[in-house]
């Protein structure tokens, strides 16, 4: 039972690692600091945006991390 649970955690961690590596590769392709909106980079990094209210907007990245707007 514990082994199956650990294997599941390992697979999830490997998937997260792959997502982070993908995001990093997308960022490394940039030869300069982004100064304008880049749809390709945005789509490569952001999974979805949730708007709960005018003051509560959350951005979820492809790697699962999330930020809340101020």
Summarize the helices and strands and which ones pair or pack.
Blueprint: H1 2-28, H2 39-45, E1 46-51, E2 57-61, E3 66-68
Antiparallel strand pairs: 1-2, 2-3
Structure overview:
The protein has 70 residues and is α+β, with helices and mostly antiparallel strands. The chain has one domain (2-68). Helices cover 49% and strands 20% of the residues. It contains 2 helices and 3 strands, in the order H-H-E-E-E. It has helices spanning 2-28, 39-45, and strands at residues 46-51, 57-61, 66-68. A 3-stranded antiparallel β-sheet has the order 1-2-3. Strand 2 (57-61) and strand 3 (66-68) form a beta hairpin. The radius of gyration is 16 Å and the shape is flat.
Note the main attributes of this structure:
single chain, 70 residues, alpha+beta, 20% strand, flat
**Span of the ends, CA to CA:** 43 Å
Task: Write down the oligomeric state.
Answer: single chain
Query: Describe the biggest sheet?
Result: 3 strands, antiparallel
Number of strands: 3
| Silhouette | flat
Question: What's the average pLDDT?
Answer: 84
Number of domains: 1
Instruction: Name the poorly predicted regions.
Output: none
Number of helices: 2
């Amino acid at each position: 039972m514990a082994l199956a649970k650990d294997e599941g955690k390992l697979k999830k961690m490997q998937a997260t690692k792959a997502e982070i590596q993908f995001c990093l590769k997308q960022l490394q392709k940039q030869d300069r600091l982004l100064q304008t909106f880049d749809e390709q980079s945005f789509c490569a990094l952001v999974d979805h945006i949730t708007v709960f209210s005018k003051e509560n907007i959350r951005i979820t990245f492809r790697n699962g991390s999330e930020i809340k707007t101020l």
